[in-house]
Amino acid sequence: MRAQFVLSEIGVGLRRNLTMTFAVVVSVALSLALFGGSLLMRDQVSTMKGYWYDKVNVSIFLCNKADAEQDPKCAKGAVTNEQKDRILTDLKKMSVVDTVEHETADEAYKHYKEQFGDSPLSSSLTPDQMQESYRIKLKDPEKYQVVATAFSGRDGVQSVEDQKGVLDNLFELLNGMNKAALAVMALMLVVALMLIVNTVRVSAFSRRRETGIMRLVGASSLYIQMPFILEAAVSGLIGGGLACGFLLLGRYFIIDHGLELSEKLTLINFIGWDSVFAVLPLVLVIGLLMPALAAFLALRKYLKV
């Protein structure tokens, strides 16, 4: 009987404040969707780091005749065979180096023509203008500075470049976008909490006669508060369910279908459905508990029991 009364009170409260309940559901859904999206973005960045950092190379570019005439770093002339042999020997001795590949000027020219053959500049380049280089794969991409320190400024070395620096700029951009999404989520969360508190206040005020009677007949504080708390919890749970739906639809339409990013951006290792499903329970739990806790705290002030 008591459970039936509590459930009926929940239905009455939701119908009485239908507009505000709808606003609570929408704001909770949007804030939790942003929260879940931020978690998935963080997982995506981590997955991309693991995928790309494993493939980045450190490149040691060697001086050629053109560099000897134009670049102060190559003032001592183009790299000699002896210098190249010494660089290769020292690279193989380094514990941080996994593999070393030598790219000749002709190979560099061929690769350039394959990638930028349509560029107007490509017609004016010749193989002797291209730089020889050593492409080094490190056991730990974070150890780039060890190679840079050892070979920067050596005779015959024009520059030491790390592809990881380019990726770091990309990941900083993605992390910045993620932080922006979290900031918007926090703002939406504050709006949702304010709506929940206001909804509880209106509901408690509109039913002050019923709660007064219940207090007179000896109903416990928890029994009187429970319908209001459950109303907020139900609204939050509906919002959490909608947020889960948004995340599932986003993964389905943005990556698998619709935009089909997984097919268009084949070089990106996108997170799988398992990552999405792992976030959904957390979104639902927060959607249930956050409004219930906000309602409980609001009732202590606005419902004198």
Automatic annotation (TrEMBL):
GO terms for cellular component: plasma membrane. This is Cell division protein FtsX. The chain crosses the membrane at residues 20-41, 180-200, 237-255, 275-299. It is a multi-pass membrane protein. NCBIfam families: FtsX_actino. It comes from Streptomyces spectabilis. Part of the ABC transporter FtsEX involved in cellular division. Residues 56-160 form the FtsX extracellular domain.
